[in-house]
Amino acid sequence: MVRLIITFLVLSHFPCFICHSQGQNLRVESSFQPPSITLSNNSVYKVIIHGSQENPQGSLPQVPGLIISNSPQTFRSASFRNGVPSVRLEISFQVKPKKMGKHTIPSWPVKIGSNTLQVPSSTIEVLAPNQQDKIRQNAEEKQKSELKEACFIEFTKPRSFLFEGETVSGSINLYIWDRLPVSRIERAPQKDGDAFSLTELGQPQEKRNQSKYNKSYTVFSWPIGLTAAIAGKHSITFNTSIRVRVKSRGNSPFASPFHNDPFFGFGREESLKVTSELQNITVKSLPVINRPKSFNGAIGSLSTRSTVDNDRVSLGDPVRFFFDIEGQGNFSAMPAPIFESNSDFKIGPPAFSFAGNELTKHQGKQRFEYILTPLNPGLLKIPVIHFSYFDPIQEKYFTLNSSEHPLRVDPGETWIDTTRGELEVEERSNSIPTADLFQTENEPGKWVHEIQKTILLNSSIFWAAQGIPFICVCGLIFYGRKRKRTGKDIFRQKQTSLKKQMKEAIEYKDSTLFYRATRERIRLEIGSFYKYGNPSSLSNNEISSLLKNGNNEESLISQIQEILHISDSHEFAENEEFSQSLDDQLKKINGLLKKIR
Questions:
Q1: Are 301 and 393 in contact (CB under 8 A)?
Q2: What is the pLDDT of residues 162-206, one digit of tens each?
Q3: Number of domains the chain contains
Q4: Do 261 and 179 meet the contact criterion of CB atoms below 8 Å apart?
Q5: Helices 582-594 and 460-508: crossing angle, nearest 10°?
Q6: Does the reported pTM lie above 0.85?
């Protein structure tokens, strides 16, 4: 009963308590707990602020020999001491040592409201690991090995080196141990490495009861097409996240979620990041020696074939010319062969289609369709196409030529205007001389001066015959607009989703989410603006190339490259800070994307 009364009194006077506490003298303390640890243990760096519950502002200095967490824990408390209110704010940082010796966090300023205070310096002593630490360290290494075998990613590639612009097929395999309590895969694997572009990942192929490391796994495989974009020595990894059901970590002797499989699906869920091993790939530049003039970027093992849909036409009638490229190669980035007009033919731009593996775009047949219009009558020959490609296995250039296709062009018939003669004959036949006509009592009737003509526009059959094609044409136009609008709606949905993520990141001050959404939005809008087939796979250099081809200003290109660099640096260098606020960055990005042409 006494406790309830005291609690009631404290709560009823709490507003006054806060007001009086603001007048209390501000004081800051700092310390390590414990102040002395071995190299394999962790400590806590505590900063205690007396006299205020306002959120402090400051920048914690970095110490070379210590790893200090960026996510501190806070604890607020208020109490009475001898009738005087006392307010306390405690901030705790996890600290992990990297080397032995004494390490000091120097004094640093912290701002509380309108006051600026100095946090006193604190020193921690890191000792050599003892025998117990070595045993624990060996246990942790064994645990890491077990965790690595519980869920991992393997990336298969055909060769240890590629040529610049070459596309190879591979697969990303996610192994999940059957005893691992996984609830779902949060996202498809993502690539780390700007020197390569990747085809879009679809639905994975699932295989069960796959044996490896004397364990049974379920394997999820994504077939991919990997294209080398930049010459040099580069590394590539893939990562994904899965959700695992676990109990409390405190109940596990190994502090591992894999030794705490909850019964009947009870327990909480944690996100586990899975990363593949780092693989180094050398990307070679294409040789300059013996490079044909007709080479336009095709790489692979290819063959060609050419056909026409007709070998005899009249002057002015179009002819369809097909040029097929078949085999293994970089079909997703393969340009159309050069086929120019001449004095005999007018050649339009080609239409192209691909038939083969749509996931990797590495093996199949690419067809280019040209429309040729003959300009002169006679026996003509369709121009020959010279197609060159580079074979990465033989490391040589090859040139293939299309077949010679003769085409007979008839001059056609001379057109004669017979409309005027037919009109004159019709007028003469319709004219009736009224002088030769007379009416008798045996032929009664109403006298008329001319024979009445049937008007075609008053015929229901005529309008029925015209209405059916009109309805069909309107239906085709509506269907085409609907399909076009569907593609635009998908783009707007993705764009709206990314803008929403950026605004939510600004609201929650999540810079990692903001810059990740920024990078995806730049890829989406620039790739869609220039009609790139797979905007999500664009690298920074490919984005620059698209902007340069669009005759954009150098300042615009450099500013977009700077934003992409900040996004990459923020994701791969978490401790790096950027002076510009997220609101200003959003306004700047919106302005730059509007200037793209």
A1: yes
A2: 888 888 888 899 999 888 888 888 888 888 878 888 888 888 888
A3: 4
A4: yes
A5: 150
A6: no
